[in-house]
Amino acid sequence: MARVIVDVMLKPEIHDPQGEAVLGACHRLGFGQVSGVRQGKRFEIEIDGPAGEASLAAIAGLAGELLANPVIEDFSVHAAELPGRRHSPGSLRACG
Amino acid sequence: MRIGVVTFPGSLDDQDAARAVRYAGARPVKLWHADRDLRGVDAVILPGGFSYGDYLRCGAIARFSPVMSELVPAARAGLPVLGICNGFQILCEAHLLPGALTRNAGLRFITRDVRLTVENTRTAWTRGYGAGQELTIPLKSGEGAYTADEATLDELEATGRVVVRYAAGAPNGAARGIAGICGETGGVVGLMPHPEHAIEALTGPSGDGLGFFASVAGAFAKAAS
Questions:
Q1: To which CATH superfamily is domain A2-83 assigned?
Q2: pLDDT of residue B223
Q3: Residue B117 and residue A20: Cα distance in Å, rounded?
Q4: In this structure, what CATH number is given to the domain that contains residue B148?
Q5: HSE-up of B185 (CA within 13 Å, CB side)?
Q6: ipTM of the complex
């Protein structure tokens, strides 16, 4: 079994009011160095077998048909390097 | 005339759409999302609501429901289809209409009556209106900002496929104030505001929306006579 990651982002020319709202909140929290935020989606997809070229191509097809709307979104597909490893706020320090 | 109204899990306005069909003198026919069957209807309405909870993207899951596997080829072959709000989103996701609906520019869910200008009176759903006629009907959506690339917007304008436009500016940030568009032949129409909520003064801000349903019903009455 392997895990494939699909990241979906609004195209650069598409207005992202959610990202702007997050940017505003960053500034209110004192993170003045944050100059832009774009919000997207991440899918973690488990597949049978290894994440080889054919699997990644199949998942890319799935992403283009279902996970992303190519009219307004771009997507990228890659195999997860460390399947199952998670960063939570509590583990960030340990992860360095 | 029989007009199908599709119910998806999460549809809200199927009852009002069916009622509008009755007010227009046609017979509503219930269609179920899980049936690969259009029951021989003469036209179909995809109603408003939150099909499949708006999961993934509005309309993205509904697009692949069994009833859509029948509806998409039928629409391409000329069956009149009206998508209202979530129905408009589904039509875009199904590529029966170009572009997409994105989150309102101000992030807020907007529920208010809006004024629309009818710009195309040649579609199956608007031929009962006069060109330039103003309508007051409710808008109620969180992801209603129509978006498409500039080339698509130019083509829609040049070919007269902007069916209705917000008369006083788009409250949701829709590109070029577009509230509704049609497909290449005018059989498929999608719009964000809700004509089915404005079919009589008792329950709506006006009776202005009835024309959508009367247009398609009237066309069939004429063809049958």
A1: Phosphoribosylformylglycinamidine synthase subunit PurS (3.30.1280.10)
A2: 57
A3: 31
A4: 3.40.50.880
A5: 10
A6: 0.84
Confidence of residue B219 (pLDDT cuts 50, 70, 90): low
pTM of this structure = 0.91
Pair B127, B118: CB distance under 8 Å: no
Q: Does A21 touch chain B (CB under 8 A)?
A: yes
Determine the residue among A11, A13, A66, A75 to mutate to test chain B binding: the one whose Cβ has the most chain B Cβ atoms within 10 Å.
A66
Say if the Cβ atoms of B107 and A17 lie within 8 Å: yes
The residue segments making up the domain with residue B189 are 2-224
Chain-chain contact of B147 with A67 (C-beta, under 8 angstroms): no
In the A/B pair of chains, how many CB contacts fall below 8 A? 36
Q: Which ranges constitute the DSSP H helices of B31-173?
A: 66-76, 86-93, 150-158
> Crossing angle for the helix pair B14-23 and B210-224, nearest 10 degrees?
50
Number of domains chain B is built from: 1
CB < 8 Å to B104, chain A = 17
Known catalytic residues of B?
Answer: 85, 194, 196
Tell whether A32 lies on the interface with B, counting CB pairs under 8 A.
no
What the block records as the tokens of A70 is 């190519």
